Amino acid sequence: MRIFEPHAHMTSRTTDDYETMAAAGVTVIVEPAFWLGQPRTSLGSFVDYFNSLLGWERFRASQFGVAHHCTLALNPKEANDDGLRREVLAVLPRYLAKDRVVAVGEVGYDSMTPEEDEAFAAQLALALEHDLPVLVHTPHRDKLAGTRRSLDVIRESGLPPERVLIDHNNELTVREVKESGCWLAFSIYPDTKMDEDRFVRIVDEYGTERMLVNSAADWGRSDPLKVVKTAAAMMEAGRSEDEVDQVVWRNPVEFFAQSGRLELDVERPAAPATFAGNSILRGERPA
Amino acid sequence: MTLEELRAALDARLVPEARRWLAESLAAVRRDPSQIRLRFPAAGRHLGRGAVVNHASSDEQVPRWTMDQAGRVLLLAELGDRVVDELDELYRYGDADEQRAIVAGLHLLPIGGRGLPLVVEALRSNDARLVAATVGPYGSARLPDHLFRHAVLKCVFVGVPLAAVHGLDRRADSELARMLAGYALERVAAGRDVPADVWAVVHRFDPWEELAAIKAEMKAPRAAPRAAARRALAALAAERRRS
Ligand SMILES: [Zn+2]
């Protein structure tokens, strides 16, 4: 089965994880820019992070035949730093012009502050300007209110709903997001936030149209094989192969292809494979 | 290749839609130089990434113009004298392809010596394709002797063939020959092969100390260095016969 992982923070994962994902059938990964667990203190840290999502991670993925893409944005948590917000938003347009940037994201809310409002609206405008779809993170605290407010801001922005993917949904948010016309993603975690079986029940009720699953695969407790496991859970629950394919392949392809920058084929670099002189093999080059 | 030759060669390869995008982008950049910040990174997906000219050489590492690179250099050139105001930041925020286009096209821009810091920075990278661009026409004309020699040595280290070094005949000197022979000696002592293209420079200046040390490896206690020394000296002798 072909698998598209539409939301994985591979920066936090080892090269073994790429290998394991590829072996399980993952051939495309989208890595959204987010925060790194502790606040960054300078623009340079963001620039290096964006560059690594465009360079090093793409290289690591290509070693296993995986096509790596990213979404770039200032995340809502760090949008609350006034200096950084100004500086990151100023360089962002340069980055949104680059190849393999398939959406603006993750944008949205963390604590629903005026600073987050400003960064969210500014980046929705950038998405319109750069003709890119948007990946929206919904907050962990006060999720339903945060999701509703996100949908309001999106409506005001003038972005058509089919260009927007609302992420980290649960049973409480699914109905309103589905009715909005936006795409819906579910992050499947090893703990209680959302698991495979709950997702299967949501699909029973709401269907597979505009539905995506992802593993988040971040620095927290997470499992980079959750998309694969969710596909298996759907099959076990009696969904057809076609429905599973829609969720784990056709839907993410259709959504991100709106960027015009999705490249499903990966160019495997010739041996010896190095990126800026670094080999993931870490050993000596062949004689 | 001059800028106008490059423009013509690229134009011959472009499909109508790409040609339209390039014309629009050149006009946009002329009107507002800051537009280059958005047009320059986008060139690959609009113009394509294939070769501009089919070179006879099948050597992957020899730098040649690709359509995205050529388009990027035309965009830079369109800025005229104002290109210096944008160049450093385009490099700083550039991905590997963008940085390579900048370094490869410096000699076609009206910037005098102001591109040299970028060449020096690119030299610090270990990305073979970027290193290859540093020894193009601009770097070859402007790098000071010491840095030029290190650029050539770096090419050998990262696997860029010396055929890619612009004006190597003109700039090679006895110190470079000594450095390359020293590298050959290191390889021989480790029992490994020496890249064949170093001998053309080495034999012109015959750095006797290093060559004597390679000969001495013929009597090394281990078989691998002895064999490597034999192969190295045979390659050097073949080079002498050729020239
Ligand atoms: Zn995330």
Description:
The complex is a heterodimer of chains A (287) and B (243). Chain A has 287 residues and is an alpha/beta fold. Chain A has one domain (3-259): Metal-dependent hydrolases (TIM Barrel). Helices cover 42% and strands 14% of the residues of chain A. Chain A is built from 10 helices and 8 strands. Chain A has helices spanning 15-23, 43-54, 56-62, 82-96, 114-129, 143-157, 174-180, 196-206, 226-236, 241-257; strands spanning 3-5, 26-32, 67-72, 101-108, 134-137, 164-167, 183-187, 211-214. An 8-stranded parallel sheet of chain A has the order 1-2-3-4-5-6-7-8, with helices on both faces. In chain A, helix 7 (174-180) links the parallel strand 6 (164-167) and strand 7 (183-187). The N and C termini of chain A lie far apart (39 Å). By secondary structure, chain B is mainly α. Chain B has 2 domains: 1-144, no CATH class; 172-243, no CATH class. In chain B, 67% of the residues lie in helices and 0% in strands. Chain B has 15 helices and no strands. In chain B, helix 2 packs antiparallel against helix 3. The longest helix of chain B is centred in the C-terminal third of the chain and has 20 residues, at 223-242. Chain B is elongated and about 70 Å long. The structure holds zinc ion. Zinc ion binds next to loops of chain A.
